[in-house]
């Protein structure tokens, strides 16, 4: 996502890629009466509405309380969720999911109609979902999103209560990953109709069909609980009773909570990593995510000038940012698509699409491009505001980027660090000059990144556009969709166009540096944003 998936984030998404998998479930652990863990996240929940969420924190909580047709698992596999099995037609365009008899937390049955209703609601222009584009390969989806066809015409139908039939425009091998993400979750029809626009705005205004139910979230608070859901179809395998969640923005406060025993898990800042990197409870996990700088071309037409965009990129030392400023395991990026996420014929996508000049540091060259760009646009100086979150990591990042960019003649940067929810809102509505944001892969395919920077994508907040880029992305998902080699080449060329044109400035690929109490068993992190295998987690005394 930006889940989370799927989903744009700033700061560290602490449960972003958490999979609770198979180690240490012995009898003394599973027999503990107090199966409770205390967990830290970097920000509070923005929304629990699957049709409206865009951020990782919200998505990861929804993944604990709700469930889609399938769930992602270890090694980029999928396992049954609400669907006990599925079939795909020979032409790859029709997917049929056979649903188990599962229930919502209020005891009502989860039916195929709940999926149909949810998906139709997401593509309905009235919902204004930023994730509506992700349904673009469903029959009639794009016409519905454009307001040219009724949502009821979407290529999904309920064949009785427990069979869901999906019609695609073209084959899509990774569709199995997509239906495991929160934007494809079902929505309890009666709940949505009861609360309307308030649906998903607090813990009492949404139905739950997953391993846990959400308790104690009023829409704005920084603490809440995930409590075992006795109505979940596989509840007998869930050993954990309660996960106490706490949003903590300040690393020192979080570490103090861990040391005092109030937290069983915390992430570490770069300065803290130096102190704890040899601790037996220290773990670092690379993420399939990229933090990047967007320049608002609609608000500042000067940024339509490639030389100015190129100057900004060359002026920022990404290695220093990752290794010295953050110092938490993060690394300088190779491009927009994260490395070690997807490969073809044994070659990593980030290596094949690598454009050195788009991510390297060269201040002398930056000044030359800047001078040329100013001359071409008739500008002599620029005064800009740099928007980001108010977390410690975000503040240190903006301070560094500010110091780097102001080395360019005539550049003045004012930092604006705001709460996570505010940054999301301002980014989406174009209320920024420059913004530092991020994308975390929902599924292990380059398209997960490349799609969001096409000209008309709702996540393309900077409004960069390139016709050749759009055409290649479209081709990879259209005429070349069934040709693996051709599709891969399309995406590689698209990434190179993006980087050569400097549509965005990749800043760093993050890692999660953590401390976790040894009483928590069975936790593994994976680069993309899969859901949790809650049946494996245990807490010992």
From TrEMBL:
CDD domains xrefs: PBP2_OppA
One Pfam family in the UniProt entry: SBP_bac_5
Main location group: other
Cleaved signal peptide residues: 1-21
Subcellular location: Cell envelope
Molecular function terms from GO: peptide transmembrane transporter activity
GO cellular component terms, semicolon-separated: ATP-binding cassette (ABC) transporter complex; outer membrane-bounded periplasmic space
Domain of life: Bacteria
GO biological process: peptide transport
Keywords: Peptide transport, Protein transport, Signal, Transport
InterPro entries, per the entry: Peptide/Ni-bd, SBP_5, SBP_5_dom
Family: Belongs to the bacterial solute-binding protein 5 family.
Protein name: ABC transporter, substrate-binding protein, family 5
